[in-house]
């Protein structure tokens, strides 16, 4: 498995978190991957073979070659069809809204083809990324397109950006009222901004951030005790940690620990 992470142009960093690529030969491709919520909307381009999604109702859905996947609030099961060659634009939690007129609410836990969501120009972007010779070309194509979409008036919201950064820096351990106090904005104002731009509540993003921190600690073997891990993440107790863990992964910590853990984090590997 070969995966690489790239930082965006500094003028795009308020909108784009990172670019990411994954290449796996057909013979080494795992049968199924569990994608864990990480608080980001992603634009995914399969320049090799596509994937299929295993839905909760037991049905399988073939994913488009190019699509946007909205905010995840539960585990998302995918299976490669053959060879993997994937390029991803991962947006900041509040970074995708300026690029679309479609309601972010409609994308929750859903993969929607670029052709369905956007204009003909987005289809040309998809074609250009699929035909690019390497990741550097893909990034250049993507950034030229994103810069073109952004108007001079497109700005990020200071309060919202500060709240998201506060959640990130605290590893999701703060209450909403504590976040409100740190960014000097009232709670209702923050929650309204999250609803309009992120389509997760501050509490949901905090839970997801805290769980991602725990998963990474497991991945690097920083913790070999689930009870200590729960304590470090300021969970009330082991039962609370287990409940949140199963909500986002579909499994208990013991069931999930192992090869599945590494594959679940492929979309959140830059930090």
Notes on the structure:
The protein is an alpha+beta fold and 271 residues long. It folds into two domains: 2-149, Jelly Rolls (Sandwich); 158-264, Arc Repressor Mutant, subunit A, CATH 1.10.10.60. Helices cover 40% and strands 18% of the residues. The protein has eleven helices and ten strands. The protein has a six-stranded antiparallel β-sheet. A four-stranded antiparallel β-sheet has the order 3-8-5-6. Helix 4 crosses helix 5 (176-183). The longest helix has 18 residues, at 202-219. The two termini are 18 Å apart. The model has no long low-confidence stretch (mean pLDDT 83).
Count of distinct strands: 10
How many domains comprise the coordinates? 2
CATH topology of the largest domain: Jelly Rolls
Q: Average the pLDDT over all residues and give the rounded result.
A: 83
Largest sheet: 6 strands, antiparallel
**Order of strands, widest sheet:** 1-2-9-4-7-10
CATH superfamily of the largest domain: Jelly Rolls
- Quote the distance from N terminus to C terminus: 18 Å
Coarse structural class: alpha+beta
Q: How much helix, percentage-wise, in residues?
A: 40-55%
Q: Output the helix-strand order.
A: EEEEEEEEEEHHHHHHHHHHH
CATH uppermost class of the largest domain: Mainly Beta
The whole-angstrom Rg is: 18 Å
Compute the number of helices: 11
Low-confidence spans: pLDDT under 50, at least 5 residues? none
């Amino acid at each position: 498995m070969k995966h690489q992470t790239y930082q965006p142009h500094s003028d795009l960093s308020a909108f784009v978190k990172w670019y990411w690529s994954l290449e796996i030969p057909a013979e080494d491709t795992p049968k199924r991957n569990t994608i864990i919520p990480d608080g980001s909307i992603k634009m995914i381009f399969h320049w090799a073979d596509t994937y299929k999604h295993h839905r909760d109702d037991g049905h399988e859905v073939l994913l488009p070659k190019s699509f946007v996947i909205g905010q995840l609030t539960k585990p998302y099961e995918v299976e490669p069809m053959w060879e993997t060659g994937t390029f991803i634009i991962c947006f900041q939690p509040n970074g995708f809204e300026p690029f679309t007129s479609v309601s972010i609410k409609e994308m929750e836990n859903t993969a929607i083809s670029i052709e369905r969501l956007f204009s003909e120009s987005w289809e040309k972007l998809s074609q250009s990324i699929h035909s690019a010779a390497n990741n550097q070309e893909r990034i250049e194509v993507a950034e030229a397109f994103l810069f073109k979409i952004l108007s001079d008036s497109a700005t990020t919201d200071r309060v919202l950006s500060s709240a998201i950064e506060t959640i990130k820096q605290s590893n999701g351990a703060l209450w909403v009222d504590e976040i409100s106090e740190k960014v000097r904005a009232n709670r209702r104002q923050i929650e309204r901004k999250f609803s309009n731009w992120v389509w997760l509540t501050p509490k949901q993003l905090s839970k997801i951030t805290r769980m991602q921190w725990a998963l990474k600690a497991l991945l690097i073997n920083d913790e070999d005790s689930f009870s200590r891990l729960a304590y470090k993440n300021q969970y009330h107790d082991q039962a609370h940690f287990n409940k949140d863990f199963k909500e986002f992964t579909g499994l208990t910590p013991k069931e999930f620990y192992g090869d599945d853990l590494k594959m679940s984090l492929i979309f959140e590997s830059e930090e």
